[in-house]
């Protein structure tokens, strides 16, 4: 029997995720997160220090900000209504393309406590997700705090103190500004013999329906653990912990829901190619 007669092939027009041989993905084109809570701690940093963490295709403002966003999701459609915990690191950027200037955040790294949000985010969008453990968010009379760890080693801690609701005017303004946002990511699959791999910066559009906002004072600790203590996250944490915190801004606690249309994921034109990397791999043999 010929392998071409009954063997698996991807059907044109269908969307797949690993493992692909069981058929097209169950992921809807537009996903819904029925509930989210984000504890956002933002600081201004040095553009020279943060530039190496941002792809060349993206520009930094004069005063770039870094947001450390501790998020809880529930009622997630592609998890059959279940939820997950996440920590996202975003850097404020702009992209100047043929369609004009787009402002958003580049997300160099995220940590998640479940495997499917890790793989889905990496494969479709390029969200650079790693695994971690999260403490429950503690709420002590308006003081909200959290920890993230790997193999028992604390990677990050955050606290928002004296969190208080904003007034209706401020809530409407924040909800309007946050209703549509743009995320930039690096989508990468290493090149191997006879394949150039994938190396691209992506942009996608996220939509949010914000129903509640509180503001408070922020406290943030970013650790720099050894590779032995945190083999997955040590490299990223070392880079993040070295960023100067020039100004710690007011923290925000945001609640609402969100949606994501995967048809908005777009690869941006690259300023470099994979040709040199492909040539090197072809000469040395496949990646292991």
Automatic annotation (TrEMBL):
A GO MF label: lyase activity
Superkingdom of this protein's organism = Bacteria
Membrane spanning residue stretches: none
Signal sequence extent: none
What InterPro entries does this protein map onto?
Answer: Acetoacetate_decarboxylase, ADC_dom_sf
What protein am I looking at?
A: Acetoacetate decarboxylase
Q: Which organism is it from?
A: Mycobacterium seoulense
